[in-house]
Amino acid sequence: MFNLKNRVAVITGASSGLGKQMAKAFAEQGADVVILARRIEKLEELKEELEAKGVKCLAVKCDVTSTEDINNAARLTKEKFGKVDILVNNAGASKDNGVLDMTDDEWDFTIATDLTSVFKVTRAFANIMKENNYGRIINISSMYGLVGNTAISTVAYHSSKGGVVNFTRAVAAELAKHNITCNAICPGYFETELTKAVLDTNEFQAYMKGTVPMQRYGKEGELNAAAIFLASDEASYVTGAVLPVDGGYTCV
Ligand code: NDP
Questions:
Q1: Which of 157, 189, 207, 249 is catalytic?
Q2: Where are the alpha helices (DSSP H) in the chain?
Q3: What's the CATH code, domain 8-187+223-244?
Q4: Looking at ligand 1, which atom is closest to the CA of residue 161?
Q5: Is 190 in the pocket of ligand 1 (CB under 6 A)?
Q6: Ligand 1 in contact with 217 (CB < 6 A)?
Q7: Helix or strand or coil: residue 183?
Q8: Domain-wise residue ranges, the chain
Q9: Ligand 1 site, residue 96, Cβ cutoff 6 A
Q10: Ordered alpha helix ranges (H), 98-201
């Protein structure tokens, strides 16, 4: 089960953190991997690492807020591999602020990077999936897409990630007739470039101990099994699902 050999997997935001971890995990399952991000030098390093695992890899510089970049990445993927089987919408960033203080620019930045990008990337790559009547779309939302929180004021992030959850359901319903599934993963607290500065503080660790039943952050690699499951042939009847991987944060 869960063999991804001969599958082509596209992962956005693969230059660091969870995206990089998932790219490695997909390659280990045998998938050829298309890695996208803005820091092309980091992607080139990862490409070498992935090719050493015996799979093919295409690295493309792509800002997920740019329709032009996205369509270019989709074109290059089609040229190299002729198809797309798996898409992981993982790229994300946030300008954190509360509703009372958030500026228009902070709001627009976060919605563009975390929600509108997911629509644009899905549009580009799902059109290729449709040609082959096969697809697995996995959207990396967040547990913050399911609830509010009392630790950090980050209203635009909650809004965009909540949007990703219902975008997932809408796309699942629309594309089922093309044999394309669409599911969301909602990670909890994982230490990455995005979160390290906040998660490392004593104050936040104390907050985490009181709110995460497992009393720890997610470890490197702990998101991979969920992504591989949803990307697999075997998950053929799972669509529109929202899977928290959060140590229990959203169950209490
Ligand atoms: P990182 O900051 O480590 O990685 C973010 C990735 O997104 C980088 O590869 C970055 O690449 C890419 N990215 C950011 N903006 C853009 C852009 N405009 N265009 C293209 N790529 C972009 O963060 P994580 O690995 O932690 O986050 C990955 C996803 O997981 C995000 O969607 C995040 O919201 C979500 N998540 C993370 C959690 C955590 O605790 N870590 C918890 C819940 C959700 P580059 O800068 O090279 O473009």
A1: 157
A2: 17-28, 40-51, 67-81, 104-111, 117-132, 155-175, 196-199, 202-211, 224-231
A3: 3.40.50.720
A4: 34
A5: yes
A6: no
A7: strand
A8: 8-187+223-244
A9: no
A10: 104-111, 117-132, 155-175, 196-199
Burial 217-236 (b: 16+ CB within 10 A, else e): bbeeebbbebbbbbbbeebe
* Cα–ligand 1 centroid distance for 177 (angstroms): 31
The answer to whether 133 and 178 have CB atoms below 8 angstroms apart is: yes
Task: Report the largest interatomic distance among the alpha carbons of the chain, rounded to a whole angstrom.
Answer: 51
pLDDT one digit per residue (tens) for the chain, 252 residues: 999 999 999 999 999 999 999 999 999 999 999 999 999 999 999 999 999 999 999 999 999 999 999 999 999 999 999 999 999 999 999 999 999 999 999 999 999 999 999 999 999 999 999 999 999 999 999 999 999 999 999 999 999 999 999 999 999 999 999 999 999 999 999 999 989 999 999 999 999 999 999 999 999 999 999 999 999 999 999 999 999 999 999 999
Q: Which of 72, 120, 192, 219 to mutate to test the pocket of ligand 1 (most atoms within 8 A of CB)?
A: 192
**Closest-lying ligand 1 atom to the alpha carbon of residue 18:** 25
CB-ligand 1 contact for 63 (6 Å cutoff): yes
Q: Would you say 185 and 241 are in contact if contact means Cβ atoms under 8 Å apart?
A: no
Specify the ligand 1 atom closest to the Cα of 65. Answer: 18
**157 has catalytic annotation:** yes
* pTM exceeds 0.85, yes or no: yes
Pairwise CA distance, residues 247 & 249, whole Å: 6
Q: Is the CB of 145 under 6 A from ligand 1?
A: no
